[in-house]
UniProtKB/TrEMBL annotation:
One of its GO terms (molecular function) is cobalamin binding. Pfam families: B12-binding_2, MerR_1. It comes from Pedobacter duraquae. Coiled coil: none annotated. PANTHER family: MERR-FAMILY TRANSCRIPTIONAL REGULATOR (PTHR30204:SF69), REDOX-CYCLING DRUG-SENSING TRANSCRIPTIONAL ACTIVATOR SOXR (PTHR30204). Keywords: DNA-binding, Repressor, Transcription, Transcription regulation. Residues 3-72 form the HTH merR-type domain. Signal peptide: none annotated. This is B12 binding protein.
Length: 292
């Protein structure tokens, strides 16, 4: 059974370590276990209990009241919350729990429930993007394994492809052409696939190239396909901190405006010019597509 430090638990449940310790001291909530050398740790059952407690606490239940409940009572209340698909806090916690267990059935049911209730766009905005950001940080810090991140990313990727296939593309008088790709060293396709979904929903044409496209290949495709816009997404920390250098390399091989989205756009100062438009969130993307 996997062991977690308090810093691991902090990242997984989104609650500060000093708060977890305060719960332990005041209410004896999930006291840590100890190794033979007296090192504190939590196991998978402890993590599950804490995930349930946080779900209730963030939905109006006082921690003092939760401390008086049995594990079964807590679990029953959380089960009721799980079907509240609009509750993004609960669903992010549920996805985290399913990911840690490699529970494909549970993960897929959460995705299906959220999308059925809210649609893919809102689900991506308030549930999946926050979830993926959390998972990415946990992966980088070693709290979870790379396999956990790949498990979640691939299930989300597959679901977006299903939603793209289900869309009936509207007919526009003047549809625009978009070239969608990820530059060298960028492998995370989720945001780019979602952009493809939004573009198809709006009736525009897309050429989707996927991940890690060499810069020289971009130039050849642009000459052949003649897009109106190019669209990339930057999320990988492996790209480094000089995002403007990467954008410069991409733009050197384009003769059309470049749209750039992804979590890194919000974290770094982007040097904007007439041919570069940062789209920092889902609303920015939707607003841009409504304006063209």
């Amino acid at each position: 059974m996997r062991k977690y430090s308090i810093s691991d638990i902090e990242g997984l449940i989104g609650i500060k370590a000093h708060t977890i310790r305060a719960w332990e001291v005041r209410y004896n909530i999930v006291p840590p276990r100890r190794t033979p050398t007296n090192i504190r740790y939590y196991d998978e059952d402890d993590l599950k209990s804490l995930l349930n407690i946080v779900a209730l606490n963030e939905n109006g239940y006082k921690i003092s009241k939760i401390a008086q409940m049995s594990k079964k009572n807590i679990a029953d209340l959380v089960t009721q919350l799980k079907t509240d698909w609009n509750n993004n806090t609960v669903q992010v916690l549920n996805l985290s729990d399913a990911t840690l267990k490699y529970d494909e059935i549970a993960f897929s049911e959460i995705l299906a429930g959220c999308i059925k209730e809210m649609g893919l766009t809102k689900t991506m905005d308030i549930v999946l993007f926050p979830f993926m950001k959390r998972i990415g940080m946990l992966w980088q810090t070693g709290t979870i394994d790379p396999s956990h991140e790949h498990f979640a990313s691939n299930l989300i990727r597959d679901r977006i492809i299903v939603e793209i296939d289900k869309l009936k593309k509207p007919i526009l008088k003047d549809p625009k052409r978009f070239l969608l790709f990820l530059p060298e060293a960028e492998m995370h396709e989720t945001g780019l696939l979602f952009a493809r979904y939004l573009l198809k929903r709006c009736g525009h044409d897309t050429l989707y190239l996927g991940q890690e496209i060499p810069y020289t290949d971009v130039k050849k495709v642009v000459e052949s396909y003649k897009p109106d816009y190019a669209f990339i997404v930057l999320t990988s920390l492996n790209l480094g901190k000089d995002i403007n250098k990467i954008l410069g390399k991409v733009m050197d091989n384009l003769n059309v405006p470049l749209l750039v989205a992804g979590s890194l756009i919000s974290e770094f100062d982007i040097l904007v010019d007439d041919h570069l438009k940062p789209l920092k969130n889902v609303c920015d993307i939707v607003d841009f597509l409504e304006e063209i």
